[in-house]
Amino acid sequence: MDKYERQQSKKYGIREFNEGHTYRIAAVERKIERKHIDIFVCSDDGNIYTAKWTEGFEWSTMTRGWKKLGGCNFPPRAVVTALSRKPNKLDLFVCGNDNHVYTKWWTQHQGWYEGWQDLGGAGDRGDLFAPGTEIVAVSRLPDKIDLFASSTTGDIFNCYWCGDYCCGGWSSLIPRLSGKWDNFGGRHHRKSAAANVAVLSRGPYSLNVFFSGDDGRVRHKAWGKKGNKRWDPHWEILGGDNLMPGGYFAATARHSQNIDLFSRGKDGCVYTSWWSKGRGWSGLREGWAPLGGTFPPGSPISATVMEEGHLEISVVSPSGSLYRTWWTKEIGSWHNWIKESGPFVLNGQATSLSMSPSNLDIFLVRSSGEVITSNFTTDCWVSLGSPASTSARNGILNRLQPAPSSQQYGLEIVDIPKSPTNENPPSNSEDDQWFRNFQDLIIAHGIGRGINKRLKVAILDSGIDIHQFNKETRFKETLSFVDGDPKIDSSGHGTYIAAIILQLTKTVDLYIGKITNSKKVAITYARVVWDVDIMSLSFGFDEPSGLYDEIDRCLNNGIIVFASASDDAAEGHRTYPAKFSRVICVHSATWQGKASHLNPPAEENENFSTVGESIRPIWIAKVSKDGTLAEYRSGTSYATPVAVSIAAFMITFIEKKWPAYQWVLKPQSPEGIKRIFKLMSTTVGDYD
């Protein structure tokens, strides 16, 4: 530990750094008819253990425990690197106590190689790799492997394998190739076994190597640049004067024309720099961009590409907490850091992989040595047992969050995003942030990705200005129940409501009805012809106006009906159809949960309220041509589509998480949604 690290450790109350001494899970995905995940870890006994998941089956630890692959004089908790260059091949790499790198491989037809092959070490005496050093491996073609590792001299070394049929094996073992590990240089690099080297392959003839130097700046060298199959002669400095010297960092490529880098700064914040073809490095143009967070030294960073427009970042703090943030192309900004709840404390770095755009698997090791995992679809932590014990008993799956029951669904399912805690907001930015947080929640739980049931929502209002929605495909039908074009909305009221639902949902298709006094006919049409699942009614009458029978038929058919309470404030009262007993009446609240002054007095039955004060469905960055959708508006009529969106989220979330569960009270029903809202709500004054 150097002087800077000691200062930081004292500042954060950390006794020591555990770099090179924490657990690290290696995980690879592959597909042979079914999807597979293989994970590997070096335990305290210096042996390598593996477990496997196959699509349609439980983890192998449930029936057989962890499989022991043995070791070759490996230090406890050595970093294991795993690579799958073909679906039927696996390669492992570990640095032993003798400073040499060892490999072991598996093929579908022959199984695991019995021993471990010695690939030698760095330097004239082969002793420059510290025991347990991370070996970074990349395969740019099925029969090409490149290895990189940092040495105790501060240099980076490389060796490669290009297939038995071509050059006869590993370059470090064959004199006519090299006969040794090649020195890449890089003396600005810290003399440590830390994971501060990253390698990317963006195509068959492309390699990018990165490391973090003693001065905190990140350095880069490329191979195959501009069709030239040679390494750049010099290291390119990518900036980063404010970054942690020699610290952890991660690199990803969302596609062949992009690179994203992440590192921790001296201030504890996570920073990023990105490269795109034709524009170069953002860190050189405008400096490394901060992503927030305050993480002490020894906090490793993991980065995963879910799909081209979705990045996930995980950080494990030395205190044993897991933090996550993510970026999506749709939103265009990074989510605020969230601290994950789970069966922690942890010991090591988070490992994550994505087998589909809607699924993220995360692997961690608890301080007890127990491996745990979670993913987007199950939303719970599962114990895979301790690798040191290979018995099936210790490997049995243990769901660390309770299974759903009819008494608890809605309470522990999810937290709808809470707004910022600033009690004196200078502007309406907090209301915008509530919308952004809700959108991030949709992305975080994979709503709208993969196969999800589509919900049909009818908006019966003033019509829709279809020109406000460029290339929007979720308008399934528009119909006027009065004279006039349904695609002309002179008041903008219906357009605004539709925009809110479109902004806060991913699994909803809209059916637009333009109405004035023909509400009963429109409701009947939505029930019989459109066969909708949900109705959004932001209007009200002092008298039932003959609506009761038709609303009752909708409810009996399982259609969920939302209606605005009224915007007549204390002088008014709850209006129809919101006043009907089985209709979900919606009141308005601020982003802090405070009841709107526009609400009518609360009544004895449910008084549900949600965000409806000073809201707008889009923000300045996406203002429509005439600015209509950039206006802030308030009232129960605007809170109603927000409530519709929350209901759509919960229905899809529950179906996605527990598709086979037999509910006593179906979530997609008027009674089911009321029950969910009751379990989710907190009473503030007279409103829920």
From TrEMBL:
Transmembrane segments: none annotated. One of its GO terms (biological process) is proteolysis. InterPro entries: Peptidase_S8/S53_dom, Peptidase_S8/S53_dom_sf, Peptidase_S8_subtilisin-rel, PLL-like_beta-prop. Keywords: Hydrolase, Protease, Serine protease. Belongs to the peptidase S8 family. The active site is at residues 461, 493, 637. Residues 453-660 form the Peptidase S8/S53 domain. Residues 36-378 form the PLL-like beta propeller domain. This is Uncharacterized protein. SUPFAM superfamilies: Fucose-specific lectin (SSF89372), Subtilisin-like (SSF52743). The lineage of its organism: Eukaryota, Fungi, Dikarya, Ascomycota, Pezizomycotina. One of its GO terms (molecular function) is serine-type endopeptidase activity. It comes from Dactylellina haptotyla (strain CBS 200.50).
